[in-house]
Structures are given as structure tokens and as C-alpha cells.
Amino acid sequence: MAKNIVLLSDGTGNSAAKLNKTNVWRLYEALDLRDPSCQIAAYDDGVGTSSFKPLAVLGGVFGVGLARNVLSLYKFVCRNYQEGDRIYGFGFSRGAFTIRIVAGLIAREGLVPWTGSEADLQRDAKAVYREFRRRFETTLRVERPFRALRDLFVSRPPAERRRPPIHFLGVWDTVAAYGGPIDEITRAIDYWLWPLSMPDRVMSAKVRRACQALALDDERRAFWPLLWVEKEVDDDGRRAGMEENWSPPTVPYPLSDIDQQRMSQVWFAGMHSDVGGGYWRDGLSYITLDWMMSRAIVYGLDLRRAEARRLRRFANPNDKSNDSRRGLGGYYRYQPRRMEMLYGDEAKPRLGQDFSRFATAVAKHRPPGSRSARDPARWAPRTRGPTDAAPPMIHESVFARIKTCADGYSPIVIPAEYRVTTRAGEVLSETFESDGQAVARARRQERAWNWVWLKRVVYFVTVLVSAMLAAAPALVLKWPGDGERSLAAPLIPVVDLIGGVLPGLASPWVDAFRQRPEWLLYGGVALGVLLYVGGRLQRRIFDVVRNIWRRSLAGGEAPEVPVPSDWLYRLRTSEAYIATFQMLRRWVLPVIALVVIVCGLGVGASRVLFAIGDSIGLVCPEPKGSAAERQTAEFDTKSLCHPTGFTVAKGQSYRLMLTVTRPFVDGHGPKEAGAANIATDPNGFGFEKMVWQQFLGLPLRRLIASNWFRVVARIGRHGLDEQPLDFEAAPDGRTFVTTFAARSDDELYLYVNDAVIALPGYVDWFYRHNNSGAAKVALEPVK
């Protein structure tokens, strides 16, 4: 007898152990699993739930662990699938992405045979997953040579594979599994370093039925949902119509309108986790659970009826909506889910297309706001075009919530054209507004979108001010303050009081604000004002949209509302404005992020390689001799690791004296004729003398936390026993003395702290080309 195989993947940080459950877990608990011959299930904790905290953080922020989750669910199907079985998949958030990947993997690559060997299954599953991932490519295909090299050492997927259909997919608010809160960094990695995103958003023709519940009200750009293309399926590489070679299931009762669709993407009131579950106040999430269970039951999912009834009783369309940007969540990029942008979003934007649009918009050279770029009453996704997406489908509970004024609920993102579905599954031919009222509402809503634009400006300024406050420990090194002589000195006791209860990790900020209390005053006031203004703008948006909805749903004859003509609307909807910011968001800023990432990777690799070479003796030369053979030694600042010939004993303290015979000069200074560049001494110099090139070179400095050009003592050719030295200058200005304790027995080496690059021929480039200076070295033990 055929059975149901149910796969469930939870959202980021969600697991069976969490107090506040998601709809994925609730559905798992509602499954009838008493008879394994009829139905079995596998529940997978979301990424970010590892017991190893560093992995949990990486999973929660960047989605690390997705491949492991995909393979775990895939292998479960391989072990248990028999001909005729029905495969179901359910997921929320990144778990929804996981389920969509698993479904794509099964549909495209099939199931590898299960022979009873876990080792063979793991090997074959990995091979199939690698084959599936070949479709994921960067813009420049940089991954191809690495994949070709890898393929020389890994097994190929087995030729014999079963290729079952996917009976039902049900997901809540799919978000991208990889990447952090900064879109541009994710795009840079995805475009040019390693493919992260789906190659497209077209569902496989092997999926019989797909449903997605979406959140109307989440305002975090990092949580924008990934929609399926609604009018096409992928039939082994060929684009086919959604209804082609498909028919609804045969059941002994009339199917509702929505159950006669192959794909249904329906919008519900609430934030991301109001729809998928996970908040302690969760009445809204049960509405989407009820909807999803109703759709899945039609396709044969077996639920325990008593449990399903119990879950449905918790559904409350008037429950309080949560705030996903509360507290530190407010630093997520603010951008409400404008549907014209969502339905027009592309999985992989094309540079040529975007640049052509930008060039055309600039070539027309219309003054900003010379005419409206679009009528908000017309449903027209901004990239794909109006023929590629039907108007969005809204659940009736949204309008019930608007009418009852629960929380003053008033969504800003519903366009003029939309469809409505009921709890019973009907798709209404008439909405809760007349066509004229919807047009009038959509045009009036643009006033609120003007306020959204202003709130986005306030958000970015808030982030900038916060970043400057966070950078205070670094900035104060360049611009030290007056401390207790500052006009804001009365704040210093407050800083000390707060610092006394903070962990030691906060001490750099406490010290910085003690030196520069005016930064805390100005930054704190600015941040407070910005947060206040942002809150006022949010309330203003709610008030404007609430009044618009009240007028629209009141009935009566719809007034004629003209297309908005104010300057801000015309500016933000003009082709030139949209194309410019599209180029910035999709290409210019990701290129900058790419440069930063590549430089960061290069610097990291250089530091690791140099440290390895330094520790195994590739940097310092062979020892010169013993202390008995010499009284003084020469030291040249051009040397990467200068042997002194002095041998030191572990635990013994020594007095080291440097007599400068040629002035210490770093060549990164001004290039004026006869200039001395950056004159310094064995203690080196800090931010006060640094030029811009040295700020860029900080990550390459051998000891990042120490001054440029500071003399460093190293004991032994091997290992990493190094001590930055702190000298006292003699009255003659040429002699410098310090003491240090030897931590091992070996020869003493000296070098000045400068940048190094771990490339053959360039390791000591900065030493040879930029450094000047020499000194006589004398060493004696301290008795």
C-alpha cells in the first residue's frame, strides 16, 4: 500500500526544544503517525540550532548548515520511498528554502538506491547534490575550475535512480537561506565568488501542488520572501504552462476554487513569524496553519482530527501583531514589502539589462519629477512585466482585521488589483472594494509611501550615527580628546558608572567616551532624535493608511482621485531614479563589497601564510653567533628579521640599548623634494602621523595592535615569541633604552613593525623600499 512520506524543515533558530513553536512543529505534531505503512515523517530543526554555539551563530546569521539539512531529508526519502508513495514537504523561513531545495533535488536528480549501507547512501547523496548544485552559478562562472578539480577526486552519482513526483509542497514565507542582513555582501558573494541563490524561481513540473503563505507586514529587507513564478513550470529544462499536463485531484466531494489551482501563494496579516509561528503571541499564525492544513488534506495528508480541530481553535485574526523590528531588530534595513517589487524581483539580475535601462533613463534626461513614471492603480511588476504575474491573492482574514480596526491595522502594501480567497477556499470574483474605491485607495496610499521614503532616509542616517558611535575606540586613537577638560566632562562619571556594570569587553568604548565625552553627548542626542523621528514617521504612516482604508471600505461612490503629482512621488517613481538605485543596489555596492571581501580574504591568507612561514624559520636567517663573541651589534630597519648575535636565557631580564646611527624614517610620507618623510624613533608612531596608505595597510601590519616602526624583539628563529619594546629616550635624543624578560632560550632578533605580503619576492617589499634607519645594539643582563 502506498504511504505518505512527510518532510518538515523549521525556520532559523527554531527547533522542537524551543518554547514558542512554529507551524512546522505544530503540523508535525498533528500528523497521524500511528501506522508507518500509511504515513511517516522526518522533522528537521532549522539552521542555527546547533548545540555548538559558534556554529549556531553562523547558521542563524548566514545559513551555514543548509547542505547538511538538505542531505538529511533527502536520505530519509531514499531509505523509505517505494513506488507509488507520495512525498510531502513543509517548511518555514530558511526551512522553506531547504524544502524547496530538497524538492528540486528529488525532482531533477531523482533518488539514489538504498542498499542498507549508510556509507554508500552518504556518498551517493553527496554526489547527487553536487550534480544538482551545478545549476547554481556565479556571473563569471568562477566556480567551474574549482568544481572540475574537485570532480577529479570525488565519486560520480549512480546512473540508476528513481524519479518520483513531489505530491505536495507547503511553505511559509520562504526567505533566502544564505547571507546576512546586508544584501550587497550576499549579492557580491553570489554574483562573483560562490553561488548562493536559486538559479531561478520556477517550480518543477514534477511538483503536483504547491502552496505558500506570505506575510504582508514584515518591514525587514533581509526577510523579503522568495516567490515562485506563478504562470510557468520547469519541465526538464523546458518552460511549460502552469496547467499543462496537470489536473486537480479526484476526490468524492466538490473541490473549492483554490484547491483547483496547481500553485497558490496567499498573503496573510502579520510579520514573518506571525505567519510562520515562533512568537509567544501567536493567534495570527494559526490562521495560516488552518489554511495550509486544509489545502494539504485535499491532497491526502493524514492528520489526527482531534489535534487539527484543537489547533484551528487558536486562530484569531484580531490577535495583536508582533513587531519584527523591535529593539535591535530596528537595525535591519527598513523596507516594507512593496508587491510590485516583489513580484518583479529576479533570482539572478542581468547587468546588461540593468545597465541598458539605466542608460536609457539617463539618455532621456527628463528633469527629476517631470512626469509620473507610473499610475499606482495599474498592476505592473517592475521587472518581469505585467504578463508574468497575476495580481496577488489576499486572505479574507486580512480584510476582517482591517474592518474591526484591531490594532488600528492598515496594511500599506496591498495594490489596487488583487484577488481574495476565503477560509473555505473560494476565490471571490468581487473584492471588499469596488474597482473605483481600490483605484482611489492605491493613489492615496502613495502619500504614505512618501512618508516611507522619508523613514528610510532616517533609518540610514540612524545606522550611520550608530556606526560612528561603535567606531569610537578606533576614532579616538586618531583624534584623542580633552577628557576632563571637555565641555561634556560632567558625563564622565556617568560613563564610569555604566562602565562599572558592563563586561570587560565594553572597556574600549568606556575608555573612548571618557576621553571624548562630547561624542557620547552629540551621538546620543542625535541617535535619540533620530529614533524619535523614526517612531513619529511610523505612526504617521499608520495614521495616513488607516484613514485611507476607512474611507475605502466605508462604501458609497468612489471619488475620482488623480494620479499623485507631488515632487517626491514623481522623483521616487521616475525611471532615472529607479534605474540609478537599481544599479547601485544590484551592481555598484556589490562590487565595492566584492573588493572588500577579496581584500579581506587576501589579507587573511597573507597573515596565515606569513605566520606559518615565520614559525617554521623561513623569515629569520641563521643565528650569527653568541654573546661571548660580541659586545655590540648593528641593526638595520630594512631587515625583515635582524639577527643580533646575542643569546638570551629564559627567565632572565635584559637591558637593551639602541644608539641610532642613521635616523629612523618611514617612507610613506609626503614626496616633496628634500622631505624627511615620516621621522620616528624605536617607539614608532601611531595615528597622529599616519598617511592614508597606512590606514589601508593596517591589516597587513605584522603586529596590528602595535605602532608602525616600533622595534620588536623576537627570540629564536622558530616559533612566534615576539615582544614589542617600549623605549625611554636619553637626553641626547639618539640613545634609547628598555628592559624585557626573555621567555625562552635562543638568539635575539630585532625588526621594526611594518607591513608584509606573503608572496614570493614581495614579503619584505615595504621594508626594502620604504624603510630607512640603523642603530647599534647593546645588551646586558639585569642583575
What do you see in this structure?
Residues 3-294 form the T6SS Phospholipase effector Tle1-like catalytic domain. It holds the Pfam family T6SS_Tle1-like_cat. The protein contains 22 helices and 22 strands. It is of the alpha/beta class and 783 residues long. The strands form four sheets. It has a nine-stranded mixed β-sheet, with helices on both faces. Helix 14 (435-470) packs antiparallel against helix 18, helix 15 crosses helix 17 (507-515) and helix 17 crosses helix 18 (517-553). The chain starts with a strand and ends with a strand.
Can I get a quick summary?
With 783 residues, the protein is of the alpha/beta class. α3 packs across α5 (118-133).
How would you describe this structure in keywords?
single chain; 783 residues; alpha/beta; 6-stranded antiparallel sheet; 22 helices
Q: Number of helical segments?
A: 22
Distance N to C terminus: 91 Å
Number of strands: 22
Q: How do the strands line up in the largest sheet?
A: 2-1-3-4-6-9-10-11-12
Mean pLDDT across every amino acid position: 89
Which percent bin holds the helix content?
Answer: 25-40%
**Roughly what fraction of the amino acids lie in strands?**
15-25%
Fold blueprint:
Blueprint: E1 4-9, H1 23-30, E2 39-44, H2 53-62, H3 66-80, E3 86-92, H4 94-109, H5 118-133, H6 143-151, E4 168-172, H7 183-193, E5 203-204, E6 210-215, E7 232-235, E8 238-241, E9 263-268, H8 272-276, H9 283-298, H10 305-312, H11 339-342, H12 351-364, E10 393-395, H13 396-404, E11 419-421, E12 427-428, H14 435-470, H15 472-478, H16 492-501, H17 507-515, H18 517-553, H19 567-572, H20 575-615, E13 632-636, E14 642-648, E15 653-666, E16 678-680, H21 692-697, E17 711-715, E18 722-724, E19 728-729, E20 735-741, E21 746-752, H22 765-770, E22 771-781
Parallel strand pairs: 1-2, 1-3, 3-4, 4-6, 5-7, 6-9, 9-10, 10-11
Antiparallel strand pairs: 7-8, 11-12, 13-22, 14-21, 15-16, 15-20, 15-22, 17-18, 17-21, 19-20
